[in-house]
Amino acid sequence: MFKRKGIQMLSVQPDAKPKGCAGCNRKIKDRYLLKALDKYWHEDCLKCACCDCRLGEVGSTLYTKANLILCRRDYLRLFGVTGNCAACSKLIPAFEMVMRAKDNVYHLDCFACQLCNQRFCVGDKFFLKNNMILCQTDYEEGLMKEGYVSQVR
Ligand SMILES: [Zn+2]
Ligand SMILES: [Zn+2]
Ligand SMILES: [Zn+2]
Ligand SMILES: [Zn+2]
């Protein structure tokens, strides 16, 4: 599991012995340095492994595991949760494949007609009605009951 860590920005005392940067191994001679993971860093050296953003500026937290350091945004993108499945309302982990329909996300297993449980294949039409996924048959049947279809056709 990744750990969430804070980042501190410290000002360097002019008479203090320069600290080595954990990123580039050079001495830090700037006026400010970052302290994170019990190490010291140049402001430019503490970066997200994914998007290269400077972590001292981004909300001052980082996520780390072994030598990998990520910003919050990438961490959430890679390891966060996608949201709740609109069908079973359980959480969907970000790694899982999902189906999307409008603003809703679904587990692959949950993405089926909610009336007849028919699964959809690629290219199949599906419909969203009152936030329920419906196959074409059930959708049209529903419309028929409401008397719309005769007007549409
Ligand atoms: Zn450095
Ligand atoms: Zn990033
Ligand atoms: Zn689900
Ligand atoms: Zn159906």
From TrEMBL:
Signal peptide: none annotated. PROSITE patterns: LIM_DOMAIN_1, LIM_DOMAIN_2. InterPro entries: LMO_RBTN_TF, Znf_LIM. Transmembrane segments: none annotated. Keywords: LIM domain, Metal-binding, Repeat, Zinc. Gene3D superfamilies: Cysteine Rich Protein (2.10.110.10). It comes from the Eukaryota. GO terms for molecular function: DNA-binding transcription factor binding; metal ion binding; transcription coactivator activity. Residues 19-81, 83-145 form the LIM zinc-binding domain. CDD domains: LIM1_LMO1_LMO3, LIM2_LMO1_LMO3. One of its GO terms (biological process) is positive regulation of transcription by RNA polymerase II. GO terms for cellular component: nucleus. The keyword Flavoprotein does not apply. PANTHER family: LD11652P, LIM DOMAIN ONLY PROTEIN 3. This is LIM domain only protein 3. It comes from Callorhinchus milii (Ghost shark). The lineage of its organism: Eukaryota, Metazoa, Chordata, Craniata, Vertebrata. The gene is lmo3.
